[in-house]
Amino acid sequence: MADAVLDHLATARRVRPPAGGADTTTVDPTGRRLRIGIIAPVRFPIAQPFAGGLEAHTWSLARAFTAAGHHVVLYAHGDSDRGVAKVVPVFAPPEISQAARADIAAPPEHFLWEHRCMQQTVSRLLRDVDRLDLVHNNSLHYLPLAMAGLLPTPMVTTLHTPPNPWQEAGALDSGGCSRFVAVSRDVADRWSGVLGDVEVVPNGLDPVLWPAGAGGGDLVWSGRIVPEKAPHLAVAAAARLGRRIVLAGPVHDHGYFETEVAPWLSEDVVYAGHLDSTALARLVGSASCVLVTPCWDEPFGLVAAEAMLCGTPVAAFDRGGVGEVVGGGGGVLARPGDVDDLARAVVAAQAMDRGAVRARALQQLSARSMAERYLQLYAGAAA
After folding, report:
1. How many CA atoms lie within 13 A of 75 on its CB side?
2. Which secondary structure element, helix H or strand E, spans residue 95, and what is its range?
3. 132-172 pLDDT, tens per residue?
Protein backbone atom coordinates (compact mmCIF):
# COMPACT_ATOMS: atom_id res chain seq x y z
CA MET A 1 0.00 0.00 0.00
CA ALA A 2 2.87 2.38 0.74
CA ASP A 3 4.15 1.85 -2.82
CA ALA A 4 0.71 2.65 -4.19
CA VAL A 5 0.59 5.91 -2.24
CA LEU A 6 4.08 6.95 -3.31
CA ASP A 7 3.30 5.89 -6.88
CA HIS A 8 0.31 8.12 -6.93
CA LEU A 9 1.99 11.08 -5.31
CA ALA A 10 4.76 10.95 -7.88
CA THR A 11 2.19 11.76 -10.58
CA ALA A 12 0.75 14.81 -8.82
CA ARG A 13 1.37 18.10 -10.61
CA ARG A 14 0.35 21.67 -10.04
CA VAL A 15 -1.74 23.53 -12.58
CA ARG A 16 -3.16 27.02 -12.69
CA PRO A 17 -6.73 27.05 -11.28
CA PRO A 18 -9.48 28.04 -13.71
CA ALA A 19 -10.51 31.69 -13.64
CA GLY A 20 -13.04 32.22 -10.88
CA GLY A 21 -12.78 28.60 -9.79
CA ALA A 22 -11.58 26.94 -6.62
CA ASP A 23 -7.95 27.03 -5.54
CA THR A 24 -7.01 23.42 -6.31
CA THR A 25 -4.18 21.02 -6.92
CA THR A 26 -4.85 18.86 -9.98
CA VAL A 27 -3.72 15.27 -10.38
CA ASP A 28 -2.37 13.86 -13.63
CA PRO A 29 -5.24 11.87 -15.20
CA THR A 30 -3.04 8.81 -15.54
CA GLY A 31 -2.29 8.77 -11.82
CA ARG A 32 -4.31 7.04 -9.15
CA ARG A 33 -6.31 9.06 -6.67
CA LEU A 34 -5.70 8.75 -2.96
CA ARG A 35 -8.44 7.46 -0.69
CA ILE A 36 -8.11 9.69 2.39
CA GLY A 37 -10.06 9.21 5.60
CA ILE A 38 -10.25 12.39 7.70
CA ILE A 39 -11.17 12.11 11.39
CA ALA A 40 -12.96 15.35 12.21
CA PRO A 41 -13.72 16.90 15.57
CA VAL A 42 -17.18 15.59 16.40
CA ARG A 43 -18.60 18.26 18.70
CA PHE A 44 -19.85 20.52 15.89
CA PRO A 45 -20.74 19.98 12.21
CA ILE A 46 -18.07 20.55 9.59
CA ALA A 47 -20.32 23.05 7.86
CA GLN A 48 -20.90 26.77 7.55
CA PRO A 49 -21.18 28.89 9.55
CA PHE A 50 -18.24 27.24 11.28
CA ALA A 51 -18.19 26.83 15.05
CA GLY A 52 -14.48 27.68 15.10
CA GLY A 53 -11.15 27.51 13.32
CA LEU A 54 -10.78 23.75 13.76
CA GLU A 55 -14.01 23.06 11.91
CA ALA A 56 -13.10 25.60 9.21
CA HIS A 57 -9.69 23.98 8.73
CA THR A 58 -11.20 20.49 8.46
CA TRP A 59 -13.67 21.74 5.82
CA SER A 60 -10.91 23.48 3.83
CA LEU A 61 -8.72 20.37 3.95
CA ALA A 62 -11.49 18.04 2.75
CA ARG A 63 -12.56 20.49 0.07
CA ALA A 64 -9.01 20.98 -1.25
CA PHE A 65 -8.39 17.24 -1.58
CA THR A 66 -11.78 16.56 -3.16
CA ALA A 67 -11.23 19.37 -5.68
CA ALA A 68 -7.84 17.82 -6.47
CA GLY A 69 -9.51 14.57 -7.48
CA HIS A 70 -8.87 12.52 -4.35
CA HIS A 71 -11.59 10.46 -2.68
CA VAL A 72 -12.17 11.89 0.79
CA VAL A 73 -14.18 10.19 3.54
CA LEU A 74 -15.01 12.51 6.41
CA TYR A 75 -15.83 10.90 9.77
CA ALA A 76 -17.78 13.74 11.32
CA HIS A 77 -20.94 15.12 12.89
CA GLY A 78 -23.96 13.99 10.91
CA ASP A 79 -24.90 17.55 9.88
CA SER A 80 -21.57 18.12 8.15
CA ASP A 81 -21.32 19.45 4.59
CA ARG A 82 -21.69 16.55 2.14
CA GLY A 83 -20.60 18.78 -0.72
CA VAL A 84 -16.92 18.62 0.21
CA ALA A 85 -16.52 14.89 0.93
CA LYS A 86 -18.33 11.65 1.56
CA VAL A 87 -19.54 12.03 5.15
CA VAL A 88 -19.69 9.04 7.48
CA PRO A 89 -22.01 10.48 10.13
CA VAL A 90 -21.27 10.06 13.81
CA PHE A 91 -24.63 9.89 15.54
CA ALA A 92 -25.35 11.11 19.03
CA PRO A 93 -24.74 8.22 21.44
CA PRO A 94 -27.52 6.62 23.50
CA GLU A 95 -28.67 8.35 26.64
CA ILE A 96 -26.49 7.63 29.65
CA SER A 97 -28.33 5.55 32.22
CA GLN A 98 -29.21 6.93 35.62
CA ALA A 99 -27.02 4.26 37.20
CA ALA A 100 -24.01 5.46 35.20
CA ARG A 101 -24.76 9.11 35.98
CA ALA A 102 -24.82 8.27 39.69
CA ASP A 103 -21.25 6.97 39.56
CA ILE A 104 -19.21 9.10 41.95
CA ALA A 105 -16.34 9.22 39.46
CA ALA A 106 -18.49 10.06 36.42
CA PRO A 107 -16.94 12.82 34.27
CA PRO A 108 -19.02 15.74 32.93
CA GLU A 109 -21.74 14.79 30.47
CA HIS A 110 -20.16 16.73 27.57
CA PHE A 111 -16.98 14.68 28.03
CA LEU A 112 -18.95 11.43 27.96
CA TRP A 113 -20.90 12.54 24.88
CA GLU A 114 -17.77 13.42 22.91
CA HIS A 115 -16.04 10.24 24.05
CA ARG A 116 -18.93 8.05 22.87
CA CYS A 117 -19.07 9.86 19.53
CA MET A 118 -15.36 9.33 19.02
CA GLN A 119 -15.76 5.66 19.94
CA GLN A 120 -18.25 5.42 17.08
CA THR A 121 -15.79 7.15 14.77
CA VAL A 122 -13.00 4.74 15.63
CA SER A 123 -15.30 1.75 15.25
CA ARG A 124 -16.44 2.85 11.78
CA LEU A 125 -12.92 3.68 10.71
CA LEU A 126 -11.60 0.27 11.71
CA ARG A 127 -14.27 -1.33 9.53
CA ASP A 128 -13.46 0.92 6.55
CA VAL A 129 -9.70 1.21 6.82
CA ASP A 130 -8.84 -1.48 4.25
CA ARG A 131 -10.47 0.76 1.64
CA LEU A 132 -8.33 3.78 2.59
CA ASP A 133 -4.76 4.69 1.60
CA LEU A 134 -4.21 7.05 4.51
CA VAL A 135 -5.91 8.37 7.64
CA HIS A 136 -5.62 12.05 8.58
CA ASN A 137 -6.47 12.62 12.23
CA ASN A 138 -7.70 16.21 12.51
CA SER A 139 -9.40 15.83 15.89
CA LEU A 140 -8.18 16.85 19.33
CA HIS A 141 -9.23 13.52 20.85
CA TYR A 142 -6.86 10.89 22.19
CA LEU A 143 -8.74 7.80 20.93
CA PRO A 144 -7.57 7.97 17.29
CA LEU A 145 -3.97 8.18 18.49
CA ALA A 146 -4.41 5.35 20.96
CA MET A 147 -5.66 3.07 18.18
CA ALA A 148 -3.13 4.19 15.53
CA GLY A 149 -1.10 1.01 15.98
CA LEU A 150 -4.10 -1.10 14.95
CA LEU A 151 -4.33 0.50 11.50
CA PRO A 152 -2.80 -1.17 8.45
CA THR A 153 -2.62 2.29 6.83
CA PRO A 154 -0.40 5.26 7.71
CA MET A 155 -1.77 8.07 9.87
CA VAL A 156 -0.94 11.76 9.92
CA THR A 157 -2.10 13.83 12.93
CA THR A 158 -2.38 17.62 12.88
CA LEU A 159 -1.61 19.23 16.23
CA HIS A 160 -3.89 22.26 16.54
CA THR A 161 -3.14 23.15 20.16
CA PRO A 162 -0.32 22.95 22.70
CA PRO A 163 -0.15 19.66 24.64
CA ASN A 164 -3.06 18.78 26.91
CA PRO A 165 -3.11 15.75 29.23
CA TRP A 166 -5.45 13.63 27.07
CA GLN A 167 -3.93 14.24 23.66
CA GLU A 168 -0.42 13.98 25.05
CA ALA A 169 -1.26 10.57 26.51
CA GLY A 170 -2.69 9.49 23.15
CA ALA A 171 0.41 10.69 21.32
CA LEU A 172 2.65 8.71 23.65
CA ASP A 173 0.40 5.65 23.27
CA SER A 174 0.57 5.85 19.47
CA GLY A 175 3.99 4.21 19.60
CA GLY A 176 5.31 6.04 16.56
CA CYS A 177 2.38 4.90 14.40
CA SER A 178 1.30 8.43 13.52
CA ARG A 179 3.29 11.16 11.86
CA PHE A 180 2.72 14.52 13.54
CA VAL A 181 2.51 18.00 12.05
CA ALA A 182 1.78 21.29 13.82
CA VAL A 183 -0.12 24.30 12.51
CA SER A 184 2.60 26.71 13.66
CA ARG A 185 6.19 26.68 14.85
CA ASP A 186 4.94 27.83 18.26
CA VAL A 187 2.76 24.71 18.61
CA ALA A 188 5.57 22.50 17.29
CA ASP A 189 8.00 23.87 19.86
CA ARG A 190 5.52 23.26 22.69
CA TRP A 191 5.20 19.61 21.62
CA SER A 192 8.96 19.12 21.16
CA GLY A 193 9.46 17.90 24.74
CA VAL A 194 6.95 15.11 24.06
CA LEU A 195 7.48 14.24 20.39
CA GLY A 196 10.83 15.75 19.47
CA ASP A 197 11.00 17.67 16.20
CA VAL A 198 7.55 18.24 14.66
CA GLU A 199 7.02 19.49 11.12
CA VAL A 200 4.90 22.58 10.46
CA VAL A 201 2.17 23.07 7.86
CA PRO A 202 0.31 26.38 8.26
CA ASN A 203 -3.45 26.36 7.79
CA GLY A 204 -4.61 27.44 4.35
CA LEU A 205 -7.69 29.05 2.79
CA ASP A 206 -9.13 29.28 -0.70
CA PRO A 207 -8.48 32.82 -2.02
CA VAL A 208 -11.58 32.53 -4.21
CA LEU A 209 -13.67 32.39 -1.02
CA TRP A 210 -11.71 35.28 0.53
CA PRO A 211 -11.43 37.83 -2.28
CA ALA A 212 -9.70 41.17 -2.09
CA GLY A 213 -11.90 43.85 -0.55
CA ALA A 214 -11.92 47.61 -0.97
CA GLY A 215 -11.22 48.30 2.71
CA GLY A 216 -11.49 51.73 4.25
CA GLY A 217 -14.46 50.90 6.44
CA ASP A 218 -14.98 50.12 10.10
CA LEU A 219 -12.68 48.13 12.34
CA VAL A 220 -13.64 44.45 12.55
CA TRP A 221 -13.11 41.67 15.06
CA SER A 222 -14.18 38.08 14.27
CA GLY A 223 -13.92 34.71 15.98
CA ARG A 224 -15.41 32.63 18.76
CA ILE A 225 -16.76 34.92 21.46
CA VAL A 226 -15.03 33.51 24.52
CA PRO A 227 -12.79 35.06 27.21
CA GLU A 228 -9.52 33.77 25.72
CA LYS A 229 -10.27 35.53 22.41
CA ALA A 230 -11.06 38.77 24.32
CA PRO A 231 -13.17 40.80 21.90
CA HIS A 232 -13.81 43.27 24.73
CA LEU A 233 -10.18 44.39 24.39
CA ALA A 234 -10.70 45.04 20.68
CA VAL A 235 -13.73 47.16 21.60
CA ALA A 236 -11.63 49.05 24.14
CA ALA A 237 -8.92 49.76 21.55
CA ALA A 238 -11.54 51.01 19.08
CA ALA A 239 -12.92 53.32 21.79
CA ARG A 240 -9.43 54.74 22.39
CA LEU A 241 -9.31 55.66 18.70
CA GLY A 242 -12.89 56.91 18.51
CA ARG A 243 -13.62 54.30 15.83
CA ARG A 244 -16.65 52.14 15.09
CA ILE A 245 -16.08 48.39 15.37
CA VAL A 246 -18.13 45.42 14.16
CA LEU A 247 -17.90 42.05 15.98
CA ALA A 248 -18.80 38.75 14.30
CA GLY A 249 -18.73 35.14 15.48
CA PRO A 250 -20.52 32.46 17.46
CA VAL A 251 -21.18 33.13 21.14
CA HIS A 252 -19.69 30.10 22.90
CA ASP A 253 -19.64 31.66 26.36
CA HIS A 254 -22.94 33.43 26.97
CA GLY A 255 -21.96 34.58 30.46
CA TYR A 256 -18.86 36.29 29.09
CA PHE A 257 -20.86 37.88 26.26
CA GLU A 258 -23.48 39.27 28.64
CA THR A 259 -20.99 40.72 31.12
CA GLU A 260 -18.06 41.84 28.94
CA VAL A 261 -19.44 42.47 25.45
CA ALA A 262 -23.16 43.27 25.58
CA PRO A 263 -22.72 46.38 27.80
CA TRP A 264 -20.57 47.95 25.06
CA LEU A 265 -23.10 47.42 22.25
CA SER A 266 -24.22 50.67 20.63
CA GLU A 267 -24.12 52.47 17.29
CA ASP A 268 -20.33 52.36 17.55
CA VAL A 269 -20.05 48.72 18.71
CA VAL A 270 -22.13 46.37 16.57
CA TYR A 271 -22.54 42.60 16.89
CA ALA A 272 -23.20 41.24 13.38
CA GLY A 273 -23.90 37.67 14.50
CA HIS A 274 -22.51 34.31 13.40
CA LEU A 275 -21.78 34.73 9.67
CA ASP A 276 -21.01 32.22 6.94
CA SER A 277 -17.78 32.69 5.00
CA THR A 278 -19.39 34.70 2.17
CA ALA A 279 -20.87 37.29 4.52
CA LEU A 280 -17.78 37.30 6.72
CA ALA A 281 -15.45 37.78 3.74
CA ARG A 282 -17.57 40.73 2.64
CA LEU A 283 -17.36 42.28 6.11
CA VAL A 284 -13.65 41.62 6.57
CA GLY A 285 -12.84 42.86 3.07
CA SER A 286 -14.62 46.15 3.79
CA ALA A 287 -12.67 46.76 7.00
CA SER A 288 -9.75 49.15 7.31
CA CYS A 289 -8.18 46.84 9.88
CA VAL A 290 -9.01 43.54 11.61
CA LEU A 291 -8.16 43.23 15.31
CA VAL A 292 -6.97 39.90 16.75
CA THR A 293 -6.81 39.88 20.55
CA PRO A 294 -5.79 36.50 22.01
CA CYS A 295 -5.41 36.32 25.78
CA TRP A 296 -3.99 32.81 25.48
CA ASP A 297 -1.24 31.31 23.37
CA GLU A 298 -3.23 31.26 20.13
CA PRO A 299 -2.03 28.22 18.16
CA PHE A 300 -2.44 29.82 14.73
CA GLY A 301 -5.00 32.59 14.23
CA LEU A 302 -7.13 31.64 11.22
CA VAL A 303 -9.06 34.92 11.43
CA ALA A 304 -5.83 36.77 10.71
CA ALA A 305 -5.24 34.66 7.59
CA GLU A 306 -8.82 35.34 6.44
CA ALA A 307 -8.30 39.07 6.80
CA MET A 308 -4.96 39.05 5.00
CA LEU A 309 -6.36 37.15 2.01
CA CYS A 310 -8.97 39.91 1.73
CA GLY A 311 -6.10 42.42 1.73
CA THR A 312 -7.10 43.75 5.14
CA PRO A 313 -4.13 44.37 7.45
CA VAL A 314 -4.22 42.97 10.97
CA ALA A 315 -3.45 44.51 14.36
CA ALA A 316 -2.83 41.66 16.79
CA PHE A 317 -1.53 40.80 20.23
CA ASP A 318 1.71 38.90 19.74
CA ARG A 319 0.82 35.61 21.46
CA GLY A 320 1.37 32.03 20.34
CA GLY A 321 1.45 31.47 16.59
CA VAL A 322 -0.24 34.74 15.61
CA GLY A 323 3.09 36.44 15.03
CA GLU A 324 4.01 33.79 12.44
CA VAL A 325 0.82 34.54 10.50
CA VAL A 326 0.83 38.33 10.77
CA GLY A 327 4.55 39.10 10.89
CA GLY A 328 6.50 39.80 7.74
CA GLY A 329 3.93 41.94 5.97
CA GLY A 330 0.46 40.93 7.14
CA GLY A 331 -0.05 43.52 9.84
CA VAL A 332 1.36 45.03 13.02
CA LEU A 333 1.90 43.22 16.32
CA ALA A 334 1.19 44.69 19.76
CA ARG A 335 2.24 43.79 23.28
CA PRO A 336 -0.12 41.12 24.66
CA GLY A 337 -2.98 42.57 26.68
CA ASP A 338 -1.90 46.19 26.11
CA VAL A 339 -4.93 48.07 24.72
CA ASP A 340 -2.99 51.29 24.11
CA ASP A 341 -0.34 49.42 22.13
CA LEU A 342 -3.09 47.66 20.18
CA ALA A 343 -4.55 51.05 19.27
CA ARG A 344 -1.09 52.09 18.04
CA ALA A 345 -0.89 48.91 15.96
CA VAL A 346 -4.26 49.68 14.38
CA VAL A 347 -3.08 53.10 13.23
CA ALA A 348 0.12 51.63 11.79
CA ALA A 349 -1.62 48.67 10.14
CA GLN A 350 -4.15 50.86 8.32
CA ALA A 351 -1.30 52.52 6.44
CA MET A 352 -0.13 49.21 4.92
CA ASP A 353 -0.57 48.42 1.24
CA ARG A 354 -3.55 46.07 0.89
CA GLY A 355 -2.18 44.48 -2.28
CA ALA A 356 1.04 43.56 -0.52
CA VAL A 357 -0.90 42.12 2.44
CA ARG A 358 -2.93 39.87 0.13
CA ALA A 359 0.17 38.87 -1.86
CA ARG A 360 1.87 37.63 1.29
CA ALA A 361 -1.22 35.59 2.22
CA LEU A 362 -1.48 34.12 -1.28
CA GLN A 363 2.13 33.00 -1.09
CA GLN A 364 2.03 31.39 2.36
CA LEU A 365 -1.56 30.78 3.45
CA SER A 366 -3.45 29.31 0.49
CA ALA A 367 -5.37 26.04 0.53
CA ARG A 368 -3.32 24.88 -2.45
CA SER A 369 0.02 25.20 -0.67
CA MET A 370 -1.47 23.54 2.44
CA ALA A 371 -2.78 20.59 0.41
CA GLU A 372 0.49 20.12 -1.45
CA ARG A 373 2.51 20.09 1.75
CA TYR A 374 0.16 17.55 3.28
CA LEU A 375 0.49 15.34 0.19
CA GLN A 376 4.26 15.42 0.67
CA LEU A 377 3.77 14.43 4.31
CA TYR A 378 1.47 11.60 3.26
CA ALA A 379 4.21 10.26 1.03
CA GLY A 380 6.66 10.38 3.93
CA ALA A 381 4.19 8.66 6.24
CA ALA A 382 3.55 5.94 3.67
CA ALA A 383 7.29 5.38 3.28
Report:
1. 24
2. none
3. 999 999 999 999 998 888 888 999 999 999 999 989 999 99
Residue 146 contacts residue 173 (beta carbons within 8 Å): yes
202: left (phi over 0), alpha (psi -120 to 50) or beta: beta
Domains, the chain, ordered by start: 2-206+366-382 (3.40.50.2000), 219-364 (3.40.50.2000)
H runs (alpha helix) in 68-203? 98-101, 109-128, 143-146, 165-173, 185-195
| Beta-bridge mates of residue 316 | 292, 333
Give the burial class of 181: count Cβ atoms within 10 A of its Cβ; 0-12 exposed, 13-18 middle, 19 or more buried.
buried
104: CB partners within 8 A, 6+ apart: none
Cα 75 to Cα 335: distance, rounded to the nearest angstrom: 40
Q: How many CB atoms lie within 10 A of CB 214?
A: 12
Q: Which residues on adjacent β-strands are paired with residue 76?
A: 89
| pLDDT tens, position by position, 275-328 | 999 999 999 999 999 999 999 999 999 999 999 999 999 999 999 999 999 998
Is the previous residue joined to 49 through a cis bond, with omega within 30 degrees of 0? yes
Distance CA 63, CA 86 (A): 11
Contact (Cβ atoms closer than 8 angstroms) between residue 31 and residue 11: yes
Q: Which strand ranges, in their side-by-side order, compose the sheet holding 199-200?
A: 86-90, 71-77, 35-39, 134-137, 155-159, 178-182, 199-200
Helix axes 53-67, 302-309, angle to 10 degrees: 60
